[in-house]
Design brief:
Strand content: under 5%
Largest sheet: none
Order of helices and strands: HHHHHHHHHHHHHH
Protein name: DUF2059 domain-containing protein
Radius of gyration: 20 Å
Keywords: Signal
Helix content: over 70%
Number of helices: 14
Mean pLDDT: 81
Length: 276
C-alpha cells in the first residue's frame, strides 16, 4: 500500500457515523502507523521534496528566491506534526474493529514480508538499483503470470491514482509557495493553480502508470505470484478499500497543513527581510 495513496470517498463517508462514536487508543494507532510503513514514508518525504525542488532550480528565473522557498518547504515538513495529523485523522475516521482487523492482517507473515520489501523504496540507493533492474528486464522479461499479478496489484491498490495525488499535492504546495514569494516581492501572479493541477493530473497519469508497473516489478521481485494475488485480494475487499480511503484522506489533510505552514513561513520571512 505504501507504494502509493488517494480514493473511494463514498466508502469513507459511509463509515463516518460509526467511526465518530468510538475512541481508539493512541497506542493502537501508533502500532498501525508503524506496521503500515506510513512512518517510513513520512521520514523519507524531505528527500523527495528536495529532488523535485532541485530539478525546478535548473530552470529557475530567480534562483535566489527559489532557494529561499526551498529551505522553507523542507523546514516546514515536520515529521512529528505530519504524523500527528495523520494519526488524528485515522483515529477520527476509523473504528476499533477496523483497526484491530488491520493490525492482525499487518502482523501476518506475508504482510510483514511485503512491508519489508516496500520499505526498500526509502533506501538512498533505491533509484540506482531500480534502473539497473529495469535494464535487466529487457534481457530477461518477467513471465506472463508475473505480469498479470503485478498489473492486478497496481489496479487493486489504486497505485497510479495514489501516486498521482501525492505528486500533485507536493507540486501544488511548491507552486503555492513560489507564487506567495513572488506576490510578496511585488510580482504580479496570474497562474490558476487548480487549472494547472488538473492539466498536470492528466499528463502525469500515463507516466506514473508505467512507473508504477516497473517499480512494482523491482519492489516485489522476491514475492511469489500467489502471494501478490493474495495481497491484491485484500485490497479488493471492503476493509482493504477502507484502509486505502482513510489513509489517502489523512495524507491529503497532512499535505494541506504542510502547504499552509509553508505559505505562512514564506510571508513571515519576506516581511522580516523587508523591514528597514
Amino acid at each position: 500500500m505504501k507504494a502509493a495513496l488517494h480514493f473511494l470517498w463514498i466508502s469513507l463517508i459511509s463509515f463516518q457515523a460509526l467511526a465518530s462514536i468510538e475512541n481508539i487508543p493512541e497506542e493502537t494507532i501508533e502500532q498501525y502507523i508503524e506496521l503500515s510503513g506510513i512512518e517510513e514514508m513520512i521520514d523519507s518525504m524531505p528527500v523527495q521534496i528536495d529532488a523535485m525542488i532541485n530539478q525546478r532550480l535548473l530552470t529557475a528565473e530567480n534562483p535566489e528566491v527559489e532557494k529561499e522557498v526551498m529551505l522553507v518547504l523542507t523546514d516546514a515538513w515536520d515529521p512529528s506534526d505530519i504524523k500527528a495529523s495523520i494519526s488524528n485523522h485515522i483515529q477520527n475516521n476509523s473504528n476499533n474493529r477496523e483497526i484491530s482487523e488491520l493490525l492482525e492482517w499487518r502482523r501476518s507473515s506475508l504482510i510483514m514480508k511485503i512491508t519489508a520489501a516496500e520499505a526498500e523504496s526509502s533506501d538512498p540507493l533505491f533509484q540506482n538499483n531500480l534502473l539497473r533492474y529495469i535494464a535487466d528486464l529487457q534481457v530477461s522479461p518477467p513471465t506472463p503470470e508475473t505480469t498479470q499479478a503485478i498489473r492486478r496489484l497496481v489496479v487493486s491498490t489504486d497505485m497510479v491514482s495514489l501516486m498521482v495525488e501525492m505528486t500533485v499535492q507536493v507540486i501544488k504546495a511548491m507552486m503555492s509557495a513560489f507564487m506567495t514569494a513572488e506576490s510578496e516581492n511585488g510580482s504580479e501572479v496570474t497562474v490558476d493553480i487548480n487549472k494547472e493541477i488538473n492539466s498536470m493530473r492528466a499528463m502525469l497519469t500515463p507516466q506514473l502508470e508505467q512507473q508504477a508497473i516497473l517499480t512494482s516489478y523491482y519492489i516485489y521481485r522476491n514475492i511469489s505470484n500467489d502471494e501478490l494475488n493474495s495481497y491484491s485480494s485484500f485490497y479488493d475487499s471492503t476493509l482493504g478499500k477502507r484502509e486505502l480511503a482513510v489513509v489517502s484522506e489523512s495524507l491529503n489533510v497532512a499535505m494541506s497543513l504542510w502547504a499552509e505552514k509553508s505559505a505562512v513561513a514564506i510571508v513571515n520571512n519576506i516581511e522580516r527581510n523587508n523591514q528597514p
